[in-house]
Amino acid sequence: MLPRPLETEPLSGAAIADRLRALDAWLSEHAPLWEPRPFVTWRPAWWDDAPDLASWVQTVGDGPIQALEDDLSSTVGLPERLASLARQAAALTELAPLAGAQPTPRGRGVKSRKGEQVGGFLAATEHALRGGDAVVVEWCAGRGHLGRTLSERLEREALLLERDPSLCAPARGAPERSGVRHVCVDVLDDAVHHALPDRGAFVALHACGRLTDRMLDVALAHGASAIAAAPCCAHRLFGALRYAPRSAIGRASALSLDANALRLSVLDEASVSPRDRARRQREHWLRVAVDLLAREATGADEHFSFPSAAAEQIDLPLVEFVDWVRRAHGLPVPAGWDPDQVGPAATQQLRVIRAGAIVRRVARRPLELWLALDRAQSLVEAGLEVSVGTFCARTATPRNILIVGRAT
Ligand SMILES: C[S@@+](CC[C@H](N)C(=O)[O-])C[C@H]1O[C@@H](n2cnc3c(N)ncnc32)[C@H](O)[C@@H]1O
Q1: 208 lines ligand 1 (CB under 6 A)
Q2: How many angstroms does the Cα of residue 205 sit away from the middle of ligand 1?
Q3: Is residue 313 included in any domain, yes or no?
Protein backbone atom coordinates (compact mmCIF):
# COMPACT_ATOMS: atom_id res chain seq x y z
CA MET A 1 0.00 0.00 0.00
CA LEU A 2 1.29 3.44 -0.90
CA PRO A 3 1.27 6.05 1.87
CA ARG A 4 -1.24 8.81 1.13
CA PRO A 5 -0.38 12.49 1.01
CA LEU A 6 -0.75 14.41 4.28
CA GLU A 7 -4.26 15.65 5.01
CA THR A 8 -4.69 19.40 5.03
CA GLU A 9 -8.47 19.41 5.55
CA PRO A 10 -10.57 17.63 8.16
CA LEU A 11 -12.39 14.57 6.83
CA SER A 12 -15.93 15.20 5.65
CA GLY A 13 -18.49 13.80 3.22
CA ALA A 14 -17.35 10.79 1.22
CA ALA A 15 -13.81 11.06 2.60
CA ILE A 16 -15.10 9.71 5.93
CA ALA A 17 -16.41 6.50 4.34
CA ASP A 18 -13.31 6.16 2.11
CA ARG A 19 -10.95 6.42 5.06
CA LEU A 20 -13.08 4.09 7.18
CA ARG A 21 -12.96 1.47 4.43
CA ALA A 22 -9.18 1.86 4.03
CA LEU A 23 -8.62 1.52 7.79
CA ASP A 24 -10.96 -1.43 7.92
CA ALA A 25 -9.07 -3.26 5.18
CA TRP A 26 -5.70 -2.56 6.83
CA LEU A 27 -6.81 -3.52 10.33
CA SER A 28 -8.47 -6.71 9.06
CA GLU A 29 -5.42 -7.71 7.02
CA HIS A 30 -3.08 -7.22 9.97
CA ALA A 31 -5.40 -8.50 12.70
CA PRO A 32 -3.18 -11.57 13.38
CA LEU A 33 -0.43 -9.12 14.37
CA TRP A 34 -2.41 -6.91 16.75
CA GLU A 35 -5.18 -9.10 18.11
CA PRO A 36 -3.07 -11.45 20.30
CA ARG A 37 -2.03 -9.77 23.55
CA PRO A 38 1.70 -10.32 24.21
CA PHE A 39 1.16 -10.73 27.96
CA VAL A 40 -1.31 -13.55 27.38
CA THR A 41 -0.20 -15.23 24.16
CA TRP A 42 3.54 -15.76 24.42
CA ARG A 43 3.92 -17.39 21.02
CA PRO A 44 1.44 -15.80 18.62
CA ALA A 45 0.71 -17.54 15.32
CA TRP A 46 2.24 -14.65 13.33
CA TRP A 47 5.72 -15.73 14.48
CA ASP A 48 5.51 -18.47 11.81
CA ASP A 49 4.45 -16.04 9.06
CA ALA A 50 6.91 -13.26 9.90
CA PRO A 51 10.11 -14.97 11.14
CA ASP A 52 12.15 -11.76 10.76
CA LEU A 53 9.81 -9.94 13.12
CA ALA A 54 9.63 -12.92 15.46
CA SER A 55 13.41 -13.02 15.64
CA TRP A 56 13.56 -9.27 16.43
CA VAL A 57 10.99 -9.66 19.20
CA GLN A 58 13.00 -12.47 20.78
CA THR A 59 16.39 -10.80 20.58
CA VAL A 60 15.99 -7.02 20.87
CA GLY A 61 17.59 -5.58 24.02
CA ASP A 62 16.28 -3.43 26.86
CA GLY A 63 17.80 -0.18 25.53
CA PRO A 64 16.06 -0.16 22.13
CA ILE A 65 12.82 -1.35 23.74
CA GLN A 66 12.91 1.46 26.26
CA ALA A 67 13.66 4.05 23.55
CA LEU A 68 10.71 2.85 21.45
CA GLU A 69 8.44 2.84 24.50
CA ASP A 70 9.50 6.41 25.31
CA ASP A 71 8.88 7.71 21.79
CA LEU A 72 5.67 6.16 20.56
CA SER A 73 6.02 7.60 17.07
CA SER A 74 9.64 6.55 16.52
CA THR A 75 10.49 3.92 13.95
CA VAL A 76 14.23 4.07 14.64
CA GLY A 77 15.63 0.58 15.07
CA LEU A 78 12.46 -1.17 13.98
CA PRO A 79 12.86 -4.07 11.56
CA GLU A 80 11.92 -2.99 8.03
CA ARG A 81 8.63 -4.95 7.94
CA LEU A 82 7.45 -3.19 11.09
CA ALA A 83 8.77 0.23 10.06
CA SER A 84 6.85 -0.13 6.80
CA LEU A 85 3.64 -1.02 8.66
CA ALA A 86 4.19 1.97 10.95
CA ARG A 87 4.53 4.26 7.91
CA GLN A 88 1.30 2.86 6.45
CA ALA A 89 -0.48 3.34 9.79
CA ALA A 90 0.80 6.92 10.05
CA ALA A 91 -0.49 7.72 6.55
CA LEU A 92 -3.85 6.11 7.25
CA THR A 93 -4.30 8.06 10.47
CA GLU A 94 -3.20 11.45 9.19
CA LEU A 95 -5.80 13.90 10.42
CA ALA A 96 -6.00 17.66 10.03
CA PRO A 97 -7.06 20.03 12.83
CA LEU A 98 -10.73 21.01 12.77
CA ALA A 99 -10.13 24.61 13.73
CA GLY A 100 -7.74 26.79 11.78
CA ALA A 101 -5.67 27.65 14.81
CA GLN A 102 -4.92 25.22 17.60
CA PRO A 103 -4.21 26.77 20.99
CA THR A 104 -0.50 26.86 21.68
CA PRO A 105 0.48 24.63 24.58
CA ARG A 106 1.30 26.82 27.56
CA GLY A 107 2.08 24.64 30.53
CA ARG A 108 2.03 20.97 31.28
CA GLY A 109 -0.26 21.02 34.31
CA VAL A 110 -3.55 19.11 34.38
CA LYS A 111 -5.55 22.33 34.59
CA SER A 112 -3.84 23.91 31.60
CA ARG A 113 -4.28 20.69 29.60
CA LYS A 114 -8.02 20.73 30.38
CA GLY A 115 -8.05 24.42 29.37
CA GLU A 116 -6.43 23.55 26.04
CA GLN A 117 -8.96 20.78 25.46
CA VAL A 118 -11.92 23.06 26.19
CA GLY A 119 -10.44 25.92 24.13
CA GLY A 120 -9.76 23.59 21.20
CA PHE A 121 -13.21 21.98 21.41
CA LEU A 122 -14.80 25.42 21.44
CA ALA A 123 -12.80 26.67 18.44
CA ALA A 124 -13.51 23.47 16.52
CA THR A 125 -17.27 23.44 17.13
CA GLU A 126 -18.24 27.10 17.21
CA HIS A 127 -19.14 27.18 13.51
CA ALA A 128 -21.42 24.16 13.89
CA LEU A 129 -23.06 25.41 17.07
CA ARG A 130 -23.49 29.07 16.03
CA GLY A 131 -26.92 30.33 15.05
CA GLY A 132 -30.28 29.37 16.50
CA ASP A 133 -31.01 29.08 20.16
CA ALA A 134 -30.47 25.37 20.79
CA VAL A 135 -29.77 24.47 24.39
CA VAL A 136 -26.23 23.14 24.80
CA VAL A 137 -26.40 19.67 26.37
CA GLU A 138 -23.10 18.54 27.82
CA TRP A 139 -23.00 14.76 28.24
CA CYS A 140 -20.92 13.26 31.09
CA ALA A 141 -19.96 16.80 31.95
CA GLY A 142 -17.75 16.24 34.99
CA ARG A 143 -17.42 19.72 36.50
CA GLY A 144 -19.00 21.14 33.35
CA HIS A 145 -16.17 23.42 32.15
CA LEU A 146 -16.98 22.80 28.49
CA GLY A 147 -20.76 23.31 28.67
CA ARG A 148 -20.35 26.43 30.80
CA THR A 149 -17.78 27.89 28.39
CA LEU A 150 -20.00 27.15 25.38
CA SER A 151 -22.98 28.70 27.15
CA GLU A 152 -21.02 31.86 27.81
CA ARG A 153 -19.46 32.12 24.36
CA LEU A 154 -22.62 31.28 22.40
CA GLU A 155 -24.99 33.04 24.80
CA ARG A 156 -27.11 29.92 25.14
CA GLU A 157 -28.74 27.97 27.90
CA ALA A 158 -26.81 24.88 28.90
CA LEU A 159 -27.74 21.61 30.55
CA LEU A 160 -24.80 19.77 32.08
CA LEU A 161 -25.41 16.07 32.76
CA GLU A 162 -23.18 14.23 35.21
CA ARG A 163 -23.65 11.13 37.37
CA ASP A 164 -21.18 11.90 40.16
CA PRO A 165 -22.81 14.21 42.76
CA SER A 166 -19.43 15.41 43.98
CA LEU A 167 -18.82 16.98 40.55
CA CYS A 168 -22.24 18.60 40.14
CA ALA A 169 -22.14 22.28 41.08
CA PRO A 170 -25.46 22.36 42.99
CA ALA A 171 -24.40 19.40 45.12
CA ARG A 172 -21.22 21.26 45.99
CA GLY A 173 -23.20 24.39 46.78
CA ALA A 174 -21.26 26.27 44.09
CA PRO A 175 -23.04 29.26 42.47
CA GLU A 176 -24.07 28.65 38.84
CA ARG A 177 -24.20 31.19 36.02
CA SER A 178 -27.61 32.17 34.81
CA GLY A 179 -29.02 29.85 32.14
CA VAL A 180 -26.85 26.90 33.20
CA ARG A 181 -28.26 23.83 34.97
CA HIS A 182 -25.92 21.12 36.27
CA VAL A 183 -28.05 18.02 36.73
CA CYS A 184 -27.01 14.87 38.54
CA VAL A 185 -28.24 11.99 36.36
CA ASP A 186 -27.11 8.62 35.03
CA VAL A 187 -27.17 9.07 31.25
CA LEU A 188 -27.64 5.31 30.75
CA ASP A 189 -30.92 5.52 32.63
CA ASP A 190 -34.10 6.04 30.60
CA ALA A 191 -34.95 8.92 32.93
CA VAL A 192 -32.39 11.02 31.07
CA HIS A 193 -34.88 11.46 28.23
CA HIS A 194 -37.16 13.50 30.49
CA ALA A 195 -34.40 16.01 31.19
CA LEU A 196 -33.62 16.72 27.53
CA PRO A 197 -34.75 19.54 25.26
CA ASP A 198 -35.66 18.87 21.63
CA ARG A 199 -33.17 19.96 18.95
CA GLY A 200 -30.42 20.56 21.51
CA ALA A 201 -26.74 20.92 20.64
CA PHE A 202 -25.17 17.81 22.21
CA VAL A 203 -21.50 17.86 23.19
CA ALA A 204 -19.34 15.25 24.92
CA LEU A 205 -15.69 15.69 25.86
CA HIS A 206 -14.30 12.27 26.77
CA ALA A 207 -17.51 10.45 27.59
CA CYS A 208 -16.11 6.96 28.13
CA GLY A 209 -16.69 4.19 25.59
CA ARG A 210 -20.34 3.29 25.21
CA LEU A 211 -21.42 6.55 26.89
CA THR A 212 -20.43 8.35 23.67
CA ASP A 213 -22.59 5.92 21.64
CA ARG A 214 -25.43 6.47 24.07
CA MET A 215 -25.16 10.21 23.45
CA LEU A 216 -25.26 9.76 19.68
CA ASP A 217 -28.39 7.58 19.96
CA VAL A 218 -30.16 9.89 22.39
CA ALA A 219 -29.16 13.06 20.51
CA LEU A 220 -30.54 11.66 17.23
CA ALA A 221 -33.72 10.55 18.99
CA HIS A 222 -34.20 14.13 20.24
CA GLY A 223 -33.60 15.67 16.82
CA ALA A 224 -30.27 17.26 17.75
CA SER A 225 -29.36 20.44 15.89
CA ALA A 226 -25.66 19.62 16.34
CA ILE A 227 -23.55 16.85 17.86
CA ALA A 228 -19.89 17.03 18.84
CA ALA A 229 -18.07 14.13 20.47
CA ALA A 230 -14.45 13.49 21.40
CA PRO A 231 -14.49 9.82 22.44
CA CYS A 232 -12.19 8.17 24.97
CA CYS A 233 -11.74 4.90 26.95
CA ALA A 234 -13.15 2.80 24.10
CA HIS A 235 -12.92 -0.38 26.18
CA ARG A 236 -15.53 0.80 28.69
CA LEU A 237 -18.51 -1.15 27.43
CA PHE A 238 -20.79 -0.91 30.51
CA GLY A 239 -21.97 -4.51 30.34
CA ALA A 240 -21.81 -5.05 26.57
CA LEU A 241 -19.47 -7.81 25.38
CA ARG A 242 -18.11 -5.97 22.37
CA TYR A 243 -18.29 -2.71 20.45
CA ALA A 244 -21.50 -2.52 18.42
CA PRO A 245 -20.56 -0.97 15.05
CA ARG A 246 -22.85 1.92 14.16
CA SER A 247 -22.34 2.49 10.44
CA ALA A 248 -23.15 0.19 7.52
CA ILE A 249 -19.41 -0.10 6.81
CA GLY A 250 -18.71 -0.93 10.45
CA ARG A 251 -21.44 -3.54 10.58
CA ALA A 252 -20.08 -5.22 7.43
CA SER A 253 -16.56 -5.29 8.87
CA ALA A 254 -14.80 -8.53 9.78
CA LEU A 255 -13.51 -6.87 12.95
CA SER A 256 -15.00 -8.01 16.22
CA LEU A 257 -13.85 -5.74 19.03
CA ASP A 258 -14.11 -6.93 22.62
CA ALA A 259 -12.77 -4.95 25.59
CA ASN A 260 -9.27 -6.39 25.15
CA ALA A 261 -9.08 -5.34 21.52
CA LEU A 262 -10.59 -1.94 22.29
CA ARG A 263 -8.10 -1.31 25.10
CA LEU A 264 -5.34 -1.26 22.47
CA SER A 265 -6.83 1.96 21.05
CA VAL A 266 -6.01 3.86 24.28
CA LEU A 267 -2.75 2.16 25.23
CA ASP A 268 -0.77 5.38 24.87
CA GLU A 269 -2.80 7.03 27.57
CA ALA A 270 -0.64 7.19 30.64
CA SER A 271 2.46 9.31 30.75
CA VAL A 272 3.79 7.84 33.98
CA SER A 273 6.50 9.05 36.32
CA PRO A 274 9.77 7.06 36.45
CA ARG A 275 8.76 5.81 39.92
CA ASP A 276 5.37 4.54 38.75
CA ARG A 277 6.99 3.06 35.69
CA ALA A 278 9.50 1.12 37.81
CA ARG A 279 6.67 -0.16 40.00
CA ARG A 280 4.65 -1.20 36.97
CA GLN A 281 7.67 -2.99 35.50
CA ARG A 282 8.15 -4.85 38.78
CA GLU A 283 4.50 -5.90 38.87
CA HIS A 284 4.76 -7.13 35.29
CA TRP A 285 7.94 -9.07 36.13
CA LEU A 286 6.22 -10.72 39.12
CA ARG A 287 3.22 -11.61 36.99
CA VAL A 288 5.40 -13.14 34.29
CA ALA A 289 7.20 -15.21 36.95
CA VAL A 290 3.81 -16.40 38.21
CA ASP A 291 2.82 -17.27 34.66
CA LEU A 292 6.03 -19.24 34.13
CA LEU A 293 5.30 -21.29 37.26
CA ALA A 294 1.66 -21.89 36.32
CA ARG A 295 2.63 -22.98 32.81
CA GLU A 296 5.24 -25.35 34.19
CA ALA A 297 2.91 -26.77 36.87
CA THR A 298 0.00 -27.39 34.49
CA GLY A 299 1.98 -28.16 31.34
CA ALA A 300 -0.48 -25.90 29.48
CA ASP A 301 0.66 -22.85 27.53
CA GLU A 302 -2.04 -20.72 29.16
CA HIS A 303 -1.99 -17.37 30.91
CA PHE A 304 -2.73 -17.38 34.66
CA SER A 305 -4.90 -14.36 35.32
CA PHE A 306 -5.53 -12.80 38.73
CA PRO A 307 -6.77 -9.38 39.92
CA SER A 308 -4.44 -6.43 40.40
CA ALA A 309 -2.07 -6.58 43.36
CA ALA A 310 -1.75 -3.90 46.04
CA ALA A 311 1.50 -1.97 46.50
CA GLU A 312 2.46 -3.99 49.58
CA GLN A 313 2.28 -7.23 47.58
CA ILE A 314 4.32 -5.80 44.71
CA ASP A 315 7.07 -4.98 47.21
CA LEU A 316 7.26 -8.61 48.38
CA PRO A 317 10.26 -10.73 47.37
CA LEU A 318 9.44 -13.15 44.53
CA VAL A 319 9.05 -16.23 46.74
CA GLU A 320 6.62 -14.48 49.06
CA PHE A 321 4.68 -12.95 46.16
CA VAL A 322 4.26 -16.39 44.59
CA ASP A 323 3.11 -17.77 47.92
CA TRP A 324 0.56 -14.94 48.23
CA VAL A 325 -0.83 -15.67 44.71
CA ARG A 326 -0.99 -19.38 45.58
CA ARG A 327 -2.97 -18.72 48.76
CA ALA A 328 -5.13 -15.86 47.48
CA HIS A 329 -5.79 -16.99 43.91
CA GLY A 330 -5.01 -20.73 43.74
CA LEU A 331 -1.83 -20.51 41.66
CA PRO A 332 -0.55 -24.00 40.84
CA VAL A 333 3.15 -24.10 41.74
CA PRO A 334 5.65 -26.82 40.74
CA ALA A 335 7.33 -28.54 43.70
CA GLY A 336 10.80 -27.22 44.56
CA TRP A 337 10.88 -24.32 42.07
CA ASP A 338 14.04 -22.23 42.12
CA PRO A 339 13.66 -18.42 42.28
CA ASP A 340 17.21 -18.03 40.94
CA GLN A 341 16.06 -19.67 37.71
CA VAL A 342 12.53 -18.31 37.49
CA GLY A 343 13.56 -14.67 38.18
CA PRO A 344 15.98 -14.37 35.21
CA ALA A 345 13.61 -16.38 32.98
CA ALA A 346 10.85 -13.87 33.82
CA THR A 347 13.18 -10.98 32.98
CA GLN A 348 13.86 -12.48 29.55
CA GLN A 349 10.19 -13.31 28.90
CA LEU A 350 9.11 -9.80 29.94
CA ARG A 351 11.56 -8.37 27.38
CA VAL A 352 9.89 -10.47 24.65
CA ILE A 353 6.48 -9.33 25.85
CA ARG A 354 7.49 -5.65 25.75
CA ALA A 355 8.89 -6.08 22.23
CA GLY A 356 5.66 -7.83 21.20
CA ALA A 357 3.72 -4.85 22.56
CA ILE A 358 5.74 -2.55 20.30
CA VAL A 359 4.72 -4.68 17.30
CA ARG A 360 1.09 -4.64 18.38
CA ARG A 361 0.89 -0.93 18.93
CA VAL A 362 1.33 -0.26 15.20
CA ALA A 363 -2.46 -0.73 15.07
CA ARG A 364 -3.27 1.58 18.00
CA ARG A 365 -4.09 4.84 16.21
CA PRO A 366 -5.70 3.07 13.20
CA LEU A 367 -8.07 1.36 15.62
CA GLU A 368 -8.83 4.61 17.44
CA LEU A 369 -9.58 6.38 14.16
CA TRP A 370 -11.64 3.42 12.87
CA LEU A 371 -13.87 3.75 15.95
CA ALA A 372 -14.24 7.52 15.49
CA LEU A 373 -15.02 7.19 11.78
CA ASP A 374 -17.56 4.41 12.35
CA ARG A 375 -19.40 6.81 14.66
CA ALA A 376 -18.97 9.73 12.27
CA GLN A 377 -20.21 7.68 9.31
CA SER A 378 -23.31 6.68 11.30
CA LEU A 379 -24.10 10.39 11.64
CA VAL A 380 -23.58 10.87 7.89
CA GLU A 381 -26.06 8.01 7.36
CA ALA A 382 -28.48 9.79 9.72
CA GLY A 383 -28.34 12.82 7.39
CA LEU A 384 -25.99 15.11 9.29
CA GLU A 385 -23.19 17.18 7.76
CA VAL A 386 -20.12 15.74 9.47
CA SER A 387 -16.44 16.62 9.88
CA VAL A 388 -13.72 14.72 11.72
CA GLY A 389 -10.37 16.14 12.75
CA THR A 390 -8.24 16.91 15.76
CA PHE A 391 -9.26 19.58 18.27
CA CYS A 392 -6.05 19.98 20.24
CA ALA A 393 -2.44 18.87 20.31
CA ARG A 394 -1.68 15.35 21.58
CA THR A 395 0.22 16.93 24.46
CA ALA A 396 -3.12 18.29 25.72
CA THR A 397 -4.74 14.85 25.43
CA PRO A 398 -3.93 11.79 23.32
CA ARG A 399 -7.71 11.41 22.82
CA ASN A 400 -7.75 14.40 20.48
CA ILE A 401 -10.13 13.24 17.72
CA LEU A 402 -13.37 15.18 17.44
CA ILE A 403 -16.51 14.30 15.47
CA VAL A 404 -18.69 17.30 14.64
CA GLY A 405 -22.11 16.90 13.03
CA ARG A 406 -24.70 19.49 12.12
CA ALA A 407 -28.31 18.88 11.11
CA THR A 408 -28.84 20.06 7.54
C1 LIG B 1 -13.47 11.24 31.55
S2 LIG B 1 -14.63 12.14 32.48
C3 LIG B 1 -14.90 13.55 31.46
C4 LIG B 1 -15.50 14.69 32.21
C5 LIG B 1 -15.59 16.01 31.43
N6 LIG B 1 -16.37 15.86 30.24
C7 LIG B 1 -14.21 16.51 31.12
O8 LIG B 1 -13.75 16.39 29.99
O9 LIG B 1 -13.56 17.00 32.04
C10 LIG B 1 -16.09 11.19 32.26
C11 LIG B 1 -17.25 11.68 33.13
O12 LIG B 1 -18.39 10.84 32.86
C13 LIG B 1 -19.09 10.67 34.07
N14 LIG B 1 -19.96 9.50 33.93
C15 LIG B 1 -19.58 8.20 33.91
N16 LIG B 1 -20.64 7.42 33.77
C17 LIG B 1 -21.73 8.23 33.70
C18 LIG B 1 -23.14 8.01 33.57
N19 LIG B 1 -23.60 6.77 33.44
N20 LIG B 1 -23.95 9.07 33.54
C21 LIG B 1 -23.47 10.34 33.65
N22 LIG B 1 -22.15 10.61 33.78
C23 LIG B 1 -21.29 9.57 33.82
C24 LIG B 1 -17.99 10.51 35.09
O25 LIG B 1 -18.44 10.71 36.41
C26 LIG B 1 -16.98 11.56 34.62
O27 LIG B 1 -17.23 12.80 35.22
Answers
A1: yes
A2: 9
A3: no
C-alpha–C-alpha distance, residues 325 and 307, integer Å: 10
Number of domains in the chain: 1
From the CB of 141, is ligand 1 less than 6 Å away? yes
Cβ of 142 below 6 Å from ligand 1: yes
Q: Is residue 344 part of a domain?
A: no
393 inside domain: yes
Give percent of the chain above pLDDT 90: 81
Atom number of ligand 1 nearest to Cα 192: 20
Residue 331 and residue 294 in contact, taking contact as beta carbons nearer than 8 Å:
yes
What are the start-end ranges of the H helices in 209-272?
A: 210-221, 248-252, 259-264
Those residues of the chain that have pLDDT short of 50 are 1-2, 5, 101, 104-109
188 lines ligand 1 (CB under 6 A): yes
For residue 395, being part of any structural domain is answered with: yes
205, β-bridge pairs: 230
- CATH number for the domain spanning 151: value is 3.40.50.150
Query: pLDDT (tens digit, 9 = 90+) per residue, 21-54?
Result: 999 999 999 999 999 999 999 999 999 999 999 9
| Residue 40: DSSP 8-state | T
Domain that holds residue 254: 110-267+365-407
Please give the Cα distance from 106 to 117 (Å, whole number): 12
